[in-house]
Specification:
Blueprint lengths: L15 H5 L4 E5 L5 H14 L4 E5 L9 H16 L5 E5 L16 H18 L4 E5 L2 H5 L5 H9 L6 E5 L5 H6 L2 E4 L20
Parallel strand pairs: 1-5, 1-6, 2-3, 2-4, 4-5
Helix pairs in contact: 2-3
Keywords: Transferase
GO molecular function: ATP binding; corrinoid adenosyltransferase activity
Protein name: Cob(I)yrinic acid a,c-diamide adenosyltransferase
């Protein structure tokens, strides 16, 4: 794609502007590092364009506050105070989801995952956000906690102009099939292979 130009122009009766501005379903998968980081980077871009950002973390512990969360929440506060950028909401399954105020537990994980997906479906129907980051959402799908048929139908038929990014290893083939953009992160080398633990500013 030289200079951002597509290699082909489909016969879909859409104008260049209409085709360019279609909402995207994006999947970041693979065993390599950087899936969530890339998604949060796109959220930063969207915030700068005034997008309403919604982040939903499905696996990471509520006790783990990643650096991107702190940055995006501060940007959300900046928007609230000055109108710059867009509003930001960040939700974690491990804390029982912020809208439910119910603490989660190991036994509750499957139910919490389904509750999170149910809330996301509601927000998609109401067009609450412009950009959704469903972080590590491939795992509850693969574990059978969330029904893949429901996910595919909901995402394929979401109304309005809503971008969705899904991250996690081993993305379901049906998810890959309906996505507009799929990136597979491939690990070549990683410091942990040499016994080095994660460090500030790199892993969190």
């Amino acid at each position: 794609m030289p200079q951002g130009q597509p290699l082909t122009v489909p016969d879909d009766n859409l104008t260049t502007r209409q085709r360019r501005n279609r909402p995207l379903l994006m999947v970041h998968t693979g065993d390599g590092k950087g899936k969530s980081t890339a998604a949060f980077g796109m959220a930063l871009r969207g915030w700068n364009q005034g997008f309403r950002i919604g982040v939903f973390q499905f696996v990471k512990s509520a006790k783990w506050r990643v650096g991107e969360q702190a940055v995006l929440e501060r940007l959300g506060t900046l928007h609230d105070e000055t109108g710059v950028g867009g509003p930001v909401q960040w939700h974690k399954m491990g804390s029982g989801w912020s809208w439910s105020r119910k603490s989660g537990s190991t036994e509750d994980h499957a139910g919490d995952a389904l509750a999170g997906w149910t809330e996301i479906k509601r927000r998609l129907a109401e067009q609450t956000h412009d950009l959704y980051v469903l972080d590590e959402f491939t795992y509850p799908i693969n574990w059978g906690w969330v029904d893949i048929d429901d996910v595919v139908t909901t995402l394929a038929n979401r109304p309005g102009h809503q971008h969705v990014i899904i991250t996690g290893r081993r993305a379901h083939p049906r998810l890959v099939e309906i996505a507009d953009l799929v990136t597979e992160m491939t690990k070549v080398k990683h410091p942990m292979d040499a016994g080095q633990k994660g460090q500030r500013g790199i892993e969190w």
